[in-house]
């Protein structure tokens, strides 16, 4: 059995409920990720994805409308992994401050980029898919709102840290990652460190004064 949900492309996508069907979808996504790393986004085709996954192409179309829908699903999966990584890493921080919040969050992103090189190709290099671009902006907004709420609840920031300021910080961080991974799939560590310093300096304007 499977349920249906609308995808960001505007086309309804089947969501598998049975373990066998879920595994098939994961196999298709894993195959697409390998092909993206090996040959790039532009060369990717639904037929190649199905072949690499050892599945008939008709099986792919049971779950995805087209190549762009597969790429979007990959980005969604990897961003969910990123959210989990951020939460896990923040839970391990011993001394919470604006500096440690920014550093921990951005380095959590780096961990996922290194595990998921296809995500670098799909999300950081190009974003020619309008639905993917929209999804990325929406996800950045969710990250900003979540981190702002976390900073306020933890009392490391005062309430002058607006949603707009948090969104700006996340968007700047996103652009820093685009630049850091533009020419190197492993990323430019020096540029990432500069970016962490930049975002930290901006957000420290909103840091709460501790007694």
TrEMBL record:
Residues 22-82 form the HTH tetR-type domain. Coiled coil: none annotated. SUPFAM superfamilies: Homeodomain-like. Keywords: DNA-binding. Residues 45-64 bind DNA. InterPro entries: Homeodomain-like_sf, HTH-type_TetR-like_transc_reg, HTH_TetR, TetR_C_15. Pfam families: TetR_C_15 (PF17918), TetR_N (PF00440). It comes from the Bacteria. This is TetR/AcrR family transcriptional regulator. It comes from Nocardioides mangrovi.
């Amino acid at each position: 059995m499977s349920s249906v949900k609308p995808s960001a492309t505007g086309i309804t996508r089947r969501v598998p409920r049975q373990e066998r069907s879920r595994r098939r979808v994961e196999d298709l996504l894993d195959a697409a990720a390998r092909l993206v790393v090996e040959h790039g986004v532009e060369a990717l085709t639904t037929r190649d994805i199905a072949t690499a996954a050892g599945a008939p192409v008709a099986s792919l179309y049971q779950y995805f409308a087209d190549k762009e829908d597969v790429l979007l699903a990959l980005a969604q999966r990897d961003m969910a992994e990123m959210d989990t990584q951020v939460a896990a890493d923040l839970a391990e921080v011993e001394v919470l401050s604006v500096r440690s919040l920014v550093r921990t969050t951005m380095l959590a992103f780096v961990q996922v980029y290194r595990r998921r090189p296809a995500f670098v190709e799909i999300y950081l290099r190009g974003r020619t898919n309008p639905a993917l671009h929209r999804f990325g902006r929406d996800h950045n907004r969710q990250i900003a709102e979540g981190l702002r709420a976390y900073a306020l609840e933890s009392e490391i920031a005062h309430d002058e840290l607006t949603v707009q300021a948090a969104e700006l910080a996340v968007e700047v961080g996103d652009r820093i990652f685009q630049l850091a991974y533009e020419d190197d799939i492993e990323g430019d560590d020096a540029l990432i460190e500069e970016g962490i310093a930049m975002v930290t300096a901006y957000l420290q304007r909103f840091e709460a004064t501790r007694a």
